[in-house]
Amino acid sequence: MPVRACVFDAYGTLFDVAGAARIAATESGSESGAGAWANRWPQIAQDWRRKQLEYTWIRASAGVHADFWQVTEDALDWALEAAGLDGNAALRDRLLALYRDLPAYPDVGATLAALRGAGLRCAILSNGSPAMLERAVASAGLDGAFEAVISVEEAGVFKPDPRVYALIERRLSRPPAQVAFVSANGWDACAAAGFGLRTIWLNRGGAPVDRLHARPAHVLPDLAPLPDLVRSL
Which residue numbers are catalytic? Predict the structure, then answer.
């Protein structure tokens, strides 16, 4: 059954989640004074992202949902405290402001254009809240690139709950076998594969495949080969 739609995870797949800390670290004041932190931004970004994901999994397992912006704030607070920067309110505000407008990865625009040119329907399925996703898409210059931008808020639970992946068929009216799902999160790619989607893991960091109940059908190092791969499925 040929693929008719290509659905993307957003954060870490289309939008560079390390971008906020990286950009803030280049700004005035980050390298001087008692709160200097410019040389520590990679660790802060890593802690922020790790806690953000952990909090979604814990909330999904506990049945205590909060939207992704709340989770993002909570994860940042943990990361700043771990770095001894929890008293820096200005830094916190700046990082959150930058997170609302994360840059897209360089390979995103051309890939989406090629997919649409080949007649593929493109969409997003993300943990992000609707307001977060709307702003991220607009700030990255991707308005009009997606037929649908689907938030887990429609299901009231975070990935990898199967109710989230079921939103794709509900919104696009295509069965899982006709949908290529692309995620840079290995656990997300595995869970989507287990749901029955034609899954492609965007393994930007060269990590091992997660040992879970299913494995992605394909692994790519970046988005450049994606249009040719999807056309062959």
Answer: 9
Give the model's pLDDT for residue 202: 98
Tens-place pLDDT, residues 25-65 = 988 666 654 457 788 899 999 999 999 999 999 999 999 99
Q: Would you list the domain boundaries of the chain?
A: 5-15+103-232, 19-100
Q: Considering only CA atoms, which of 52, 12, 1, 5 is closest in space to residue 223?
A: 12
In the CATH hierarchy, which top-level class contains the domain 19-100?
mainly alpha
d(CA 129, CA 150): 9
CA distance 146 to 144: 6
Work out the burial of residue 20: count CB atoms within 10 Å of its CB; fewer than 13 is exposed, 13-18 middle, 19 or more buried. Answer: buried
Amino acid at 227: P
Q: What is the pLDDT of residues 222-231, one digit of tens each?
A: 999 999 999 9
Q: Is the peptide bond before 160 cis (omega within 30 degrees of 0)?
A: yes
d(CA 35, CA 158): 35
Give per-residue pLDDT as tens, 80-121. 999 999 989 999 999 999 999 999 999 999 999 999 999 999
Rounded Cα distance between 108 and 156, Å, is: 28
Domain 5-15+103-232: give its CATH code. Answer: 3.40.50.1000
